[in-house]
Amino acid sequence: MPISLSGAGRFYITTARFLAFAFSLSLAPLYPLSASELPMGAMDETPEVSEVLVRKEERRLYLLSGDQVVRSYRIGLGDNPSGHKLYEGDKRTPEGKYVLDWRNSNSDFYKSIHISYPNAEDREQASAWGLDPGGSIMIHGLPNEAGDMAFAFLGLDWTDGCIAVSNEEMDEIWQLVADGTPIRIVP
Q1: Which of 32, 100, 103, 183 is close enough to 52 for a disulfide, judged by CB 3.0 to 4.6 Å?
Q2: What is residue 71's three-state secondary structure?
Q3: Considering the entire predicted model, what is its pTM?
Q4: Peptide bond preceding 118 in cis form (omega within 30 of 0)
Q5: Domain that holds residue 83
């Protein structure tokens, strides 16, 4: 014999089902997984990366294939992350459109990929202030001498203006992003 529920009973069951569904959605990642969260073999299925997007306020770096986010990483920025880089030594990470133009496997940090900062506009702006715009802005891993203290860098703004990820994530970015890939850095 079927059980008949009162209006309040149906409300509580409906609410419980909704909350269970909402909770299950909260367990799914909002963005694709980073290197440390990927199942083995997932790299074989990754589409070609057409652009790198950095959202400074979110502290996220995204690898894009067209409009699709294929990877997402938590990043560390310069010690003074707000605003566009104006001159060498201001410890800001630049904002704008650049290109990832070369890489260094023997840098002072665990691998590095160079960002084509400064562009003509950056040089002009710094020159108007009588300043040097600087350069050597990179995406890189942790300091080579970090050793057992590597965990202390993750999630913090500690660079001189570069974009930092974990060494494992740098390996993945190194593999997925080709020289000549555009990078867009936004506030």
Answers
A1: 183
A2: strand
A3: 0.74
A4: yes
A5: 35-186
